Amino acid sequence: MSAAAGPGGELPPLPLLHPRTGKLVTLSQGGRCAARSQPGQEFNHGLVLSREPLRPGRVFAVRIDRKVNSWSGSIEIGVTALDPDHLDFPSSATGLKGGSWIVSGCSVLRDGRSILEEYGQDLDQLGEGDRVGIQRTAGGELRLWVNGQDCGVAATGIPPRVWAVVDLYGKCTQITVVPCEPEETAAGDEALALPRNQSRPDKFPNSLESENGLSNMELSEAVSNAILSAYDGSLLSVNLGSPPPGEGPPAGAPLTSNDALLFHEKCGALIKLSNNHKTAERRRPLDEFNNGVVMTNRPLRDNEMFEIRIDKLVDKWSGSIEIGVTTHNPNSLEYPATMTNLRSGTIMMSGCGILTNGKGTRREYCEFSLDELQEGDHIGLTRKSSNALHFYINGIDQGVATTLTPLVVYGVVDLYGMAVKVTIVHNHNHSDRLRRNNAIMRALSPDVGRRALEAGGVGEPEPERLLFHTNCGQKAAIINEGRTALRPHATDDFNHGVVLSNRSLRNNEVFQVRIDKMVDKWAGSIEIGVTTHNPTYLQLPSTMTNLRSGTWMMTGNGVMHNGTTILDEYGHNLDRLKAGDTVGVVRREDGTLHFFVNGAAQGPAAWNVPPSVYAVVDLYGQAAQATIVDDTDLLPLPDDLSEGNNQLSPGSPSSVAAASDLRFHHLHGSNAVITNGGRTALRQNCRSEFNDAIVISNRALRDGELFEIVIQKMVDRWSGSIEAGVTAIRPEDLEFPNTMTDIDYDTWMLSGTAIMQDGNTMRNNYGCDLDSLSTGSRIGMLRTAKGDLHYFINGADQGVACSGLPPGKEVYAVVDLYGQCVQVSITSATGPMDNSLSTSNITEKSFPIHSPVPGVAHRFHSSCGKNVAFQDDGCRAVRVAGYCHGIVFSMKELKADEVFEVKIEELDEKWSGSFHIGLTTLPPSEVPHTAAGLPASLLELHAKATWLVAGSEVRRNGTLQRQNYGCSLERLGVGNRVGVKRCADDTMHILIDGEDMGPAATGVAKNVSVVLDLYGRVTAVSIVSSTVLEEPDGTKPPSVASETYSEEEEEEDATPCENEAPAPTAAMEFLENHGKNILLSNGNLTATRVASYNQGIVVIAQPLPQGQLFQVRIDFLNPQWTSSLSLGVIGTSPERLNFPATACSLKRSAWLLQRHSVFHNSLKICENYGPNLDTCPEGTVLGLLVDSSSCLHLYVNGMDQGAAAQDIPTPCYVLVDLYGQCEQVTIVKNEASGLAGDSADPRGQGDMEKADMVDGIKESVCWTPPVDVNTMKTCEYHALCTRFKDLLLLPDDYFTEDPKFSLCYCESCHKLRGDEAYYKRGEPPRDYALPFGWCHFNLRVNPQLEVASTCKKWHVAYHGTSLGAVRRMLDQGELGAGNTSILSCPPAKADPQGGGYPEAENSSPGHGAEPHRVLLSPTLRYAGLEAFATKVQFRDPKSQRQHGAQVAFQVWVRPGSYKPGPPSAGAPDPPEPRFSSAELEWVTKEKGATVLCALLVRVE
């Protein structure tokens, strides 16, 4: 820096910072230091300026003291002509106008506009301790200085009076003003005196990669100068290179150029050196896992190999040895606990990646992982003369780790985790290392093993019979001539029971064992799989899932590869097996791995498994003994899954596919993980992270080359799913965004049904919907020679997605594992396609696929009843005669959670009864073709195990298991859909029109086929399932099984109406541009969805002014669907907007209210906001308002729900999505309708009377939203209470038929619905508490009673009673006292006037008898006391456990007929906070004053 000293050689005074700063800045050290507060929550408002204007030629310099990793961007610096005394500080420096020049990153901006790109060094790459300065020269030039280096002219024409500007932006949170003189003079005593030709930079570069902006030459010079300073002859007597000709080493130097590499005597705290400092060992390896760093005694020479051998490992810890280089001198280094804690001058290989200064710079440097190495393996490194750093594993060069290695570096080893002892190797025995390397390479490349075999000649002939190898786990033993393995002391230890086969498996050879003995002391059980490790040389781990290389294991019901789960919920759970069960494994010729349980194939578990693998069994946990079964050749191999199995098959292998080198690139999004040799990609933490999982192909696609993947795992937590496409951005140049649709150049993506280019939607309704794909679906991408992009779904070409991809320009396949999609693998179909496809002229498709997709659609099996005929290629079954003999089967067995669905096509009303549906273990191929054939009815099918639903009855092998299940099949008509699925929890579920009826049967076997009986009225059905679509949009209805987000139900949400709403806007109407299923009417004030359940987006034509309320009324709901409308605002003009199928797919300037959540650009930003929109009934008025602070508010029936979102742009447009149940809305133009609905709407709430007004204040309108019962289907407490109610043998006619009125108020269910604890009811309104902890079963009400009036105007109370009185009260229709037997109380007649039931003529009480005294309470905390609700004991028929149970009634009680008073049975404990003691007990003696509305059950 060129500033001169002051007079007399004195340094000029240090400049200070101006006291006026950005609002988050705090100054200290007398104005020299500035820090941004709240660095974890805020990234801007960190602006500081110099106190005085800059002097010409004077450099204003600051040092970066602190950085955080929470944000992108970093320090910005420049100058401004604005006086800080009068400056209105913007949020960041780039917001300065009026003569401001700012350097940001590597760009120069003037008044916020870029004037120079790629300038100087990237400021974002600077680290803590780096110095940056700004200078205005006398000639008006602006120059940037970084660590004492002039970066050249950044701008010219700078006015003479400017102030320095520093922005503590993004990662930069603290700076200090430092002297502005050149470092040689300013360092003072801090630096060593150097000759003038050995100037030293301020520090080593923070990054050793080329991204720091320095060229290789500049970086080498900078590092060389720093190293020469640190190793000056006066400080160290070390010869760093070969002396010039004629010169010898320095006199007295303790080290010479011929000194051998040893470990330095100064080392980590737990290191012990031996063997003349050639061996290092970590003390207390079972107690401590770090503090094991050792370094070489001298720097490494060019091309010198530093190699170590692993002598000892322990299996207690995770992680293992790490090795690399560092510029730090061991004499002066304060050793860290682990080298990855060092933040400067260090390059380490850890696992299979490279860490620079403790941060990952290459995640997958090589296919080896240091964590997988064994004792005896060798690791080495070399710094080449070209500055490149190479690592070697067992003598094999792993390639360039970095090209920018400093000139002088020391070798460093970190004995971390499993690594305990190493020795420096000097003889470099390559043959020994290569021999060991072959065993590891077999797990990665089958060819390596073959080459090794060929090099060694022909080996010994393999033994014919499969036996267990004698080398087995510590606690295992081999007996019975090698055929049986056991853990002799199975009750003492649960692991160390690993056994392997004595030879490798041949292709298609099944290895099967029978479990002979089990113990019940432990959890877990047998595990089986294959490994590439030879048992002769393998050091057996305690359990096989600890092995981190070349191993595939089935454990429980999952599959693990090298200790990492690659498949969840695969096959039968091995932990449930018993003694006598068998398990097996086979590797097929195509490299797929299959498992067998009791002879049944479980499907493909892994792909690309190398040949010559050994079978392995882990006698873990309960498994104590197993014997090899010899009759494995009789096991059937699984069918080729390319024909109709939608479970993960990537297609059949081919010679073309086998030669394809397409893999996933080692660079990817931060949440993505690449496994299986680059063939599989998965998103880690899939239930807490939904994005940042972009993966890209390892090379560009050739014209006509297909890149195909198969979806292997999905989760139902998120909305949206996989996105796929191509990009012209090279992986090395791609800064991976959160999601690929954020990229705004050279990228083409398919998201849902939308084709997007550079983040903008080009077209909607492409021929497929990625959001509707499920596990096992295959997606392919292909660019033709003409530049057309095609997508393939399960092998079927979907047509041209877009044209005009730049010809001759490389494009890479890119996949975004977004939302529901968690794991994909490249299939064997990847590779060049037929020439006809590479120049495809298929017409562009903009319609859905109505034909079955190959590999997914279901079919009927040819075995059927004698009166059945098939049509439409096996997709339609017709009964051609009689009323019976109509049994049909599915073609394939049903997989877990796979839905088989049919639609009723024809009815014959002359017959009674209806069709039956269920599951059977009888394979259709085994159906006897005798004269008798199949039975006439499915009820008579008793072969093997058959579960079926007939009407509303559930039967197993003809025996009645359950009554009153779901909706009766006999009520269904033409067009209704019926489906069946077997869930992963071994339950059978029936679906009617997409709605799950809940579990019909439990304990269903795994290998089952669907069976139907075209009986009685139903004469024809056709398969629809998931791929033969009925709706024109090509997606499944938003039923529970098909929605892309988790369903949350609401219950009894009273709508408050106390506050007046703002005035609504005028002259608002819907825009003519809308979703394709929308019809506008009523002067564009009413929008109706006329088809399907989506494509119902409407937008308001006019912008929404701030402060004005826009309201719509829900006119019509269709209960056929689930979910309901959503609404919000968009910041872009809707005139030319291409509407997606649903509003939640809008990803540009969109704020959406859906259910009780708020979304911005399809990402959830707020939960539990306002009421659940899915539960709003017809007549509800919803409004939106943007206030003066640009905050978005939701109004429900005129009630403000508070701010939902901030920073809403102006102008903005209201958007309403008529989704699911909501089929019609109307814009509300008057204020009154904002309160309780429009009186013109008969379905609204316009029937409010004057009695609804109490003291001039309108009470909350009490309405019960439509309740989805699916919460209860998984609620065990609700099921338990239902089983108790069934034991009471109460007639079904007392209860309502609709199961949705059966509500559970356990803690989970009522919180899921968002229930409030208290509500008001009646005239005048009175509080009552919801029955938390009880189950609610709705009762039928006297049909002659005015139900609506009674429900609305009477109060709600509870009455606890004994079990013996329940039936009597139900018979009488009202409450009574005592426990009289039901036999002594005949039914009474109805009294329409009284609303209750009068006494029978011959009833026992006489005319003068004292009327019954009935006790009630507004809360079950009191009414449910044992003094009223007597507790009884019962045995649960399912679990056979004893439980205590109580019953009570919820009643409507006529106001004025009862008298509140203090409790007569003692106050409840804990006390009821809402009700005073004086109103806790209500007493009534009036006949007909109560109406029973629900039976309540509580079980302990």
Distance between the termini: 81 Å
Portion of residues in beta strands equals 25-35%
The percent range for helix content is under 10%
Q: What best-fitting shape do the alpha-carbon axes yield? A: globular
Radius of gyration: 39 Å
β-strand number? 93
Q: Flag low-confidence runs.
A: 1-9, 182-258, 428-462, 632-659, 834-856, 1027-1066, 1231-1273, 1378-1409
- Number of H/I helices: 13
| Average pLDDT over all residues | 78
Main β-sheet: number of strands, strand sense, barrel status?
8 strands, antiparallel
Q: Which structural class should the secondary elements be placed in?
A: mainly beta
Write a brief structural summary.
The protein is mainly beta and 1500 residues long.
Question: How would you characterize this protein structure?
Answer:
This protein is mainly beta and 1500 residues long. 7% of the residues lie in helices and 32% in strands. It is built from 13 helices and 93 strands. Strands 40, 41, 43, 48, 49, 50, 52 and 53 form an 8-stranded antiparallel β-sheet that branches. Strands 1-2-13-4-9-10-11 form a 7-stranded antiparallel β-sheet, with no helix packed on it. Strand 36 (593-597) and strand 37 (600-606) form a beta hairpin. The chain is globular, with a radius of gyration of 39 Å. Mean pLDDT is 78; it is low at 1-9, 182-258, 428-462, 632-659, 834-856, 1027-1066, 1231-1273 and 1378-1409.
